[in-house]
Amino acid sequence: xxxxxxxxxxxxxxxxxxxxxxxxxxxxxxxxxxxxxxxxxxxxxxxxxxxxxxxxxxxxxxxxxxxxxxxxxxxxxxxxxxxxxxxxxxxxxxxxxxxxxxxxxxxxxxxxxxxxxxxxxxxxxxxxxxxxxxxxxxxxxxxxxxxxxxxxxxxx
Amino acid sequence: xxxxxxxxxxxxxxxxxxxxxxxxxxxxxxxxxxxxxxxxxxxxxxxxxxxxxxxxxxxxxxxxxxxxxxxxxxxxxxxxxxxxxxxxxxxxxxxxxxxxxxxxxxxxxxxxxxxxxxxxxxxxxxxxxxxxxxxxxxxxxxxxxxxxxxxxxxxxxxxxxxxxxxxxxxxxxxxxxxxxxxxxxxxxxxxxxxxxxxxxxxxxxxxxxxxxxxxxxxxxxxxxxxxxxxxxxxxxxxxxxxxxxxxxxxxxxxxxxxxxxxxxxxxxxxxxxxxxxxxxxxxxxxxxxxxxxxxxxxxxxxxxxxxxxxxxxxxxxxxxxxxxxxxxxxxxxxxxxxxxxxxxxxxxxxxxxxxxxxxxxxxxxxxxxxxxxxxxxxxxxxxxxxxxxxxxxxxxxxxxxxxxxxxxxxxxxxxxxxxxxxxxxxxxxxxxxxxxxxxxxxxxxxxxxxxxxxxxxxxxxxxxxxxxxxxxxxxxxxxxxxxxxxxxxxxxxxxxxxxxxxxxxxxxxxxxxxxxxxxxxxxxxxxxxxxxxxxxxxxxxxxxxxxxxxxxxxxxxxxxxxxxxxxxxxxxxxxxxxxxxxxxxxxxxxxxxxx
Lengths: 156, 595
Fold this sequence. Notes:
The complex is a heterodimer of chains A (about 160) and B (about 600).
Chain A: H1 10-19, H2 26-37, H3 42-52, H4 56-65, E1 77-82, H5 85-89, H6 92-103, E2 116-121, E3 133-135, E4 138-140, H7 148-153
Parallel strand pairs in A: 1-2
Antiparallel strand pairs in A: 1-3, 3-4
Helix pairs in contact in A: 1-2, 2-3
Chain B: E1 5-10, H1 13-17, H2 20-33, E2 40-45, E3 57-60, E4 64-66, H3 74-84, H4 108-111, H5 129-134, H6 139-147, H7 150-160, H8 172-181, E5 188-193, H9 202-209, H10 211-225, E6 229-234, H11 239-254, E7 270-275, H12 285-292, E8 316-320, H13 321-333, H14 335-339, E9 349-356, E10 362-367, H15 372-379, E11 389-394, E12 400-403, H16 413-418, E13 427-432, H17 437-451, H18 457-474, H19 480-496, H20 500-504, H21 507-515, H22 517-524, E14 540-542, H23 552-556, E15 562-563, E16 571-572, H24 582-586, E17 592-594
Parallel strand pairs in B: 1-2, 5-6, 5-8, 6-7, 9-13
Antiparallel strand pairs in B: 1-3, 3-4, 9-10, 11-12, 11-13, 14-17, 15-16
């Protein structure tokens, strides 16, 4: 177990209280933790374990099973490139390569200044706009390689 | 009409990402500025389905269909259309036609469509319960609460012939009946909104455009099977759909349509949202229940089926979003009405997310029995950029490819199975001549391997082995023995896997091998990728007769592999080339060739 303490916001504490006695609360609580911190750190998982009286191993098992949960801190702007089928056929992989080249990033990595992180995600449900990418929640559709420097500049 | 004009702005995720929200706000501001705000009502609706042309704005009563609208167009739409009564021709979809108005019914994209599930999408404001009620919303619930017994409700479903729209096509009435017959003090109703098929977004659009229909249907089911609690399991990746469901649930509770003593009938039913967390396998019902219970989403052996022992070991009725959306209509119009639509084997309609290399990608709802040719070429407008049609994949990572020869197959559950694919949840991906069939099979397999929960060996090990073989083949190292191995591993996975994910994972590879053996052969025997997609098997070169020495390719090459003087033919250093294809895109003279 880790020594580092982590502080949950009052809002999060209230949420956990509300859900404490509901069966199947773990995933909902982890979602809330991730929306507060942007990821679920080991310390945060440890705290959830204490609060809900669920073994840490079980929590870690759930966290590592689901793709949505992040275990490391994402960049200030998290770039998600859709790799659903429609986007893949329309060149989603070239978009990933291009962003990787421009920012010197691997998929799953984060820039040295902590500004951008890059993720290849499964379908985000905008297949009509393929290929699609999102930065910090903003969606960009029908992206071409040439547009990427301009898009990134908006967030620089 | 209380208002002179109604302006409908698409508020689906696709259009919102193309700034539909700004269009909506600008239209309101312009109405105010130009003094017509009391005469015009502006509504943000759900998805119109024609995502290719978004953002979409429709103005009633003229039924003018404006496409690819930009926020700055708001001023002109108000000053021209609303005030002067002249359509803004440049934004109309059918601008070349001689008709005065571009009627929606005249757009090919909508002609063969028939909307039951999407009946309200694009017509109502999904965040206003009154608009749902105005279009017969909650009248089916009223009918079952006061005029129908549980057996009559299930009987109506039986007459309708409705089969589950999540993929397997199990008769819905049987599911309901099994859950009803199971004796227990507590039962549950669950909506599966964990739309995991990459390339499909039917459920998302339904929930975003018409959330109340799912709430109403689940409540009807609660009454029929004797349950008082429902859960909607929805992907966390769909924030807009979650938001609209929350708004809808709150409004339904205010109106006494959800919660205690619904409409004074004495029947209690409430619904809670549970979030998924990005696991494809959770679309499988037993895995989904595990996930609601807060565990890793691992499938469980069946039987016992959820109808007997489901959520927290209680009898549970699970249906997918599209199935739910059919229920209120069946209750209102009768099972016999629904039964007449479609084919002998499948009744009603099916919603497909038509995407890939198609001209009009979007959401289409067609009667069962429509042929693929009609969907791809009439509704979808054919292949984009004048390319040649190659295949359609239905059923996503669990389905198979359908080739030109089978384009006239009527689409229903049995018909698709016969040609080696499946209905699936509704993804329909169109491929053209530039797509390598081996590469696409590899894409799907990569997906299922990644999403396998790892519980049973045939899926965990078999999937990985198949993927290794495909990697070998696309790297030019395949042998004939690999093809034999694909068949035997595929068979083992089909027979031995615990859940549908593993059982169907070999489908894309087996069906593509069946319909495109020559393409596998080219990769294996000639070490050649006919579509020019597999990087290890292609090379780029410059045709000296066509190259004018503009240097465009050399400037674009990320590794400096292209050399040549200005106005002289250039050459590619094959050892340095990383085969990214940037030169091919950069060349305006067709001098870069792929081999």
